[in-house]
Amino acid sequence: MADQSRTPVTVIGLGSMGAALAEAFLAAGHPTTVWNRTAHKADALVAKGAVRAVSVEEAVSASPLIVTVLTTFDDTRQVLAPAAAALRGRDLVTLNSGSPAGARGTAAWAEKQGARFLAGAVKNVPSAVGAPDTLLYYSGEHAVFAEHERTLAVLGGDTVHLGDEPDLAALYEMAVGATLLPALVGFFQGAAALRSRGLTAASMVRFSGKWLDMIKSLLPVYADEIDRGDYSAAASSVGLFLAGAAHDQELAEETGVDAAWLAPLYDLLRRAEEAGHGEHSIAALAEVLREPGRAA
Question: What's the pTM?
Fold first, then answer.
């Protein structure tokens, strides 16, 4: 086995995240080859010691470990297609967005080229790459992860292997990521309401942070209720949340803020109440959300 502390690495895709990952490999002493469609994006990395590949074929051929940081699985396969033959005998790690189906398709494509495959996700912003608490998780053959774990760990101290199924990282990426947009839109709605009164969005940041901390503290409770399928101990019931719909509408009318994005959420609450969950914990929404899948 090669010395993992000095494994040569190729990084393909040098947006803000890809550049941060390449810089972390360089800082840890890994010989790092870089390639990007827009060549000048490699300039700063080359100045720090990276080798610029002139083609994607050259980039793939340069290292046993290939890390792609492109937008989707489709983009990854498209970019790597000219270098498909060079992938034989190499290990491909994808760090991009996409569905579990996309991950499975890319895993099959990589296997066809003779490459081993890991799908992964970086659960933080580019500036946090390399920090001890930055989370990255991977899925795919455990032997591949184990061989490169020390190398991949330079990207973040919280490095996790989810399992041998190649689509698990994409599944968790989407499951965990589902929280982001609703939380942000809720913050933006609150900020818009404050601005309607001449108050600053900055004035609510400390309070919103405390609110998110409270929500975080509830996640283990709700996860346990969902896993057990028991929603009878309701600290906050479906009916309680449903009663808040009128308040949201009143605030929207007073402040002139568009709260239409909440309508599907209250429709979900009404469906839960109709299904008999009115007095149950709000976590019972998980059962309503699963219903379309059960019907299929």
Answer: 0.89
